[in-house]
């Protein structure tokens, strides 16, 4: 590739995509840990405390790997993307600093107490430590998402005499409406990831006839949280975010849907292959009028296509953007269906005696990671060709002094290092799962239906 920005973008895309595999799981597990600790305090059921102990270890391992894989991204702002840092550092540096000082330090300070401090702290103080870890995890997400929301929808800033950005309204910047919507959508998606992983481990133990009491807790809590969070991802958070895109990034909406022509009664495409050269969507299967309705509230609203905008404002990879959006939306719909079926079978008392459904729950856990990755690809590719939407182009943000060869060399290094870290992580998590929950009271809290093969 002759474009120098390509390698800088590819390196950052690889490191941040790999890194986010881990925070989405810790953020998704955090509510489970807090609720299980609270239930153990309120009801005295040891099964909840035992569940919290087991998943705290999973949380701790994942947190450490997330920290290791997240550190290089901070340096890339000063190396690969130094021009962007010069331009927007006076704004985005504020929330990134807040994330480190207020949120990350809180989470990292108490995670050790959460994993190893139960006996020394006692139940109540240990619950507080767990709650502070969860709060730090989610507060960290808000600061980072506020930074990204500014890049999507810049507010609360002013341009100085030398052409750089500084904060003019801190409250407006921190309370960016795009940030609130993105935070709600992202955190609900993280809970989907956590719920699918918890349910998968419960299904695994159920099928193996091991840790039956804990298996029931994991499956029942996992499918309940999974259904609620999957619905929230779609509505209202996904719906509101789509309306924000329609209002502030019309060209991105057109690219996400492979829409080239403008007009009312715009269809929502379920499948199709965008042909940018021919300016059309091939083999499309669509719902007439639904895009107009979802974007603007009426079936007869005009939705502008890509041809209504100058080509230099089009997203730079329309095909990948289109497929990322549809993978995200398609998987999200399947998540709702799977979790709805699992909850129906649980209500009927048949879930733990339905091997096929348990196998589906066990094997489905990777797909929320795929959906979240596709969602972030949609957000970031949709913002292109801008780093700060409407203000600063991506092509102006990379550092000229870092050569393509240097960038490719470090990308190869990151790939090898992260592969080794990933294998170590899988080994540690696999060992924890095979070892099972810590010894203790393994009876489920409440009536227990007949187990599979029982």
List keywords for this structure.
two-stranded antiparallel sheet, 454 residues, mainly alpha, disordered C terminus, 6 strands
Short précis:
This protein is mostly helical.
How would you describe the overall organization of this protein?
There is one protein chain. The chain is mainly α. The chain has one domain. The protein contains 14 helices and six strands. The strands form three sheets. The chain has a two-stranded antiparallel sheet. Helix 2 packs across helix 5, helix 2 packs across helix 7 (177-208) and helix 7 packs antiparallel against helix 13.
**Tally the helices: what do you get?**
14
Unreliable residue stretches: 447-454
- Report the portion of residues in β strands: 5-15%
Give the CA-CA distance, first to last residue.
Answer: 60 Å
As for the number of domains, it is 1
- Percent helix among the residues? over 70%
Number of strands: 6
Run of helices and strands: HHHHHEEHHHHEEHHHHEEH
Sheet/helix structural class = mainly alpha
Rg for CA atoms: 23 Å
Query: Which strand order does the major sheet show?
Result: 1-2
Mean pLDDT: 93
Largest sheet: 2 strands, antiparallel
Shape: globular
């Amino acid at each position: 590739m002759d474009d120098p920005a390509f390698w800088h973008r590819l390196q950052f895309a690889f490191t941040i995509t790999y890194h986010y595999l881990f925070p989405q799981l810790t953020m998704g597990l955090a509510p489970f840990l807090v609720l299980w600790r609270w239930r153990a305090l309120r009801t005295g059921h040891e099964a909840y405390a035992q569940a919290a102990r087991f998943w705290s270890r999973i949380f701790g391992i994942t947190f450490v790997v997330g920290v290791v894989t997240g550190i290089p991204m901070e340096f890339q702002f000063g190396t690969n993307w130094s021009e962007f840092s010069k331009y927007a550092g006076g704004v985005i540096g504020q929330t990134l600093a807040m994330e480190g000082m207020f949120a990350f330090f809180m989470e990292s300070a108490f995670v050790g107490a959460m994993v190893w401090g139960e006996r020394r702290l006692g139940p109540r103080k240990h619950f507080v430590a767990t709650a502070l870890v969860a709060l730090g995890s989610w507060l960290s997400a808000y600061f980072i998402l506020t930074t990204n929301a500014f890049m999507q929808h810049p507010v609360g800033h002013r341009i100085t005499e030398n052409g750089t950005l500084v904060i003019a309204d801190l409250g407006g910047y921190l309370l960016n409406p795009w940030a609130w919507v993105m935070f709600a959508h992202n955190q609900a998606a993280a809970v989907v990831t956590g719920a699918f992983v918890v349910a998968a481990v419960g299904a695994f133990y159920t099928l193996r006839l091991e840790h039956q009491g804990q298996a029931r807790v994991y499956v029942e809590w996992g499918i309940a949280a999974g259904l609620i969070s999957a619905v929230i991802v779609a509505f209202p958070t996904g719906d509101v975010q789509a309306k924000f895109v329609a209002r502030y990034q019309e060209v991105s909406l057109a690219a996400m849907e492979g829409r080239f022509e403008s007009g009312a009664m715009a269809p929502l495409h379920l499948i199709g292959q965008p042909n940018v050269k021919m300016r059309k969507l091939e083999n499309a299967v669509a719902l007439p009028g639904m895009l107009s309705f979802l974007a603007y509230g009426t079936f007869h609203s005009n939705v502008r296509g890509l041809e209504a905008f100058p080509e230099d404002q089009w997203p730079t990879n329309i095909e990948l953007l289109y497929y990322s959006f549809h993978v995200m939306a398609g998987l999200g719909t399947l998540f709702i269906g799977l979790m709805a079926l699992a909850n129906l079978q649980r209500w009927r008392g048949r879930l733990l005696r339905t091997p096929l459904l348990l196998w589906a729950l066990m094997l489905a856990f990777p797909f929320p990671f795929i959906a979240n990755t596709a969602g972030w690809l949609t957000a970031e590719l949709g913002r292109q060709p801008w780093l700060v939407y409407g203000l600063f182009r991506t092509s102006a943000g990379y550092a000229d002094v870092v050569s393509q060869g240097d960038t490719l060399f470090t990308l190869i290094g990151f790939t090898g290092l992260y592969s080794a870290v990933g294998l170590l992580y899988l080994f540690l998590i696999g060992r924890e799962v095979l070892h099972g929950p810590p010894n203790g009271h393994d009876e489920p809290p409440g009536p227990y239906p007949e187990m599979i093969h029982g």
